[in-house]
Amino acid sequence: MRVYGYSPVPFLVAFILPPVAEKSFFQTLMLADDSYWTFGLRLMSGTLLLITILVLALPPILKKVKKRKVKLRYNHHILLDLQIISPD
């Protein structure tokens, strides 16, 4: 890790935190009678969940929209060229 310039602290946190987070997740599910709504109904958790969904879903959607705009713009220029060439 030192060769590539990585700090060992995040590496250690990555091994320590997941079991604790998993245990807390299942405790919360048991307290909520196995309902996932618990994670979305509170203001803070719902906001974080929404932000996470947007961060994961928005880039592919924006990429498709941008690709479609470029395609429409290209087709529009072709149509304009065809109208200029053949005005009849």
Fold and architecture overview:
The chain is mainly alpha-helical and 88 residues long. Helices cover 81% and strands 0% of the residues. The chain has three helices and no strands. The chain has helices at 8-31, 38-41, 43-85. It is flat and about 55 Å long. The model has no long low-confidence stretch (mean pLDDT 79).
What structural class should be given to the helix and strand makeup? mainly alpha
Quote the distance from N terminus to C terminus. Answer: 71 Å
Strand segment count = 0
> Fraction of residues in helices?
over 70%
**Outline type:** flat
State the major sheet: none
Q: Element order, helices and strands?
A: HHH
Strand content: under 5%
Low-confidence blocks of residues: none
**Helix segment count?**
3
Roughly how many Å is the radius of gyration?
A: 25 Å
Mean pLDDT: 79
Descriptive tags:
88 residues, 81% helix
Short overview:
This protein has 88 residues and is mostly helical.
SSE topology:
Blueprint: H1 8-31, H2 38-41, H3 43-85
